[in-house]
Amino acid sequence: MTRQEALKHFWETYVKEKQKEYIQKAEEEYHSRKDELAKGFIESFRRICLNIKEMQSAGQKAKIGYINYSMRRTYLLERKHEHVVEAFDKDWYFDTYPCRGTYDSEWAFKYLDALEDELEQLGKKYMGKINKPDIERIKLEAAAAFNQSIVVLVKQAMADAIRLKEFDEIVREPGLEVRVGEHKGISEVVYNEESV
Predict the structure, then answer these.
(1) pLDDT tens per residue across span 96-116
(2) Measured distance CA(95)–CA(104) in Å, rounded
């Protein structure tokens, strides 16, 4: 069996099924702990709003146009389970002084690590033809599917998050967006001020 054949066999025999299994586990955790997880998200949102207000009060931050919850692939490779939370003005990524915080996303990404661990073990059956970089590539490709659990949670929790007095107290651009996705990559709008 060539390396390419081994990779193809590995993908079709194990990877597809194991990815489904671990994504399902993340979704089940979300459904069984929905209220508790929403509170954790709302607390991270409250903290970023407090940071924004502090920077705005000090004249260091203009009106907020975007709040991004970003998954970072480098963090996932290090098994660091947190989204970076950034608040930007209307210039988005060109804002030279974003306001930063974090959101603990361990509840979803621990299953991505478990997938990686199991695939590493299964890869040993291929006598060195499946290696660590192959497993890491598979992990990073699967990350977006696990991040979808975070998107679902945030969409559900935003209705309560926007009622926070800390959110009400920040100065916002018309059409402020809250987004969840990849750092400087694809992200999904989970709240748009104009749509409310």
Answers:
(1) 888 999 999 999 999 999 999
(2) 24
Q: Is the pLDDT of residue 196 over 50?
A: no
Residue among 78, 88, 152 at smallest CA distance from 112: 78
Q: Hey, where are the domains in the chain?
A: 3-192
Identity of the residue numbered 181: G
Compute the C-alpha angle 142/147/151, nearest 5°.
Answer: 150
- HSE-CB for 121 with a 13 A CA cutoff: 6
Q: Which secondary-structure segment (H or E) carries 188?
A: strand 187-192
Instruction: List the beta bridge partners of residue 172.
Output: 64
Q: Which residue is associated with the tokens 């991004």?
A: 68
Write out pLDDT tens, residues 131-154: 999 999 999 999 999 999 999 999
pTM of the model: 0.89
- How far apart CA 116 and CA 61 sit, in angstroms, is 40
Q: Interior CA angle at 39 toward 155 and 178, to 5°? A: 35
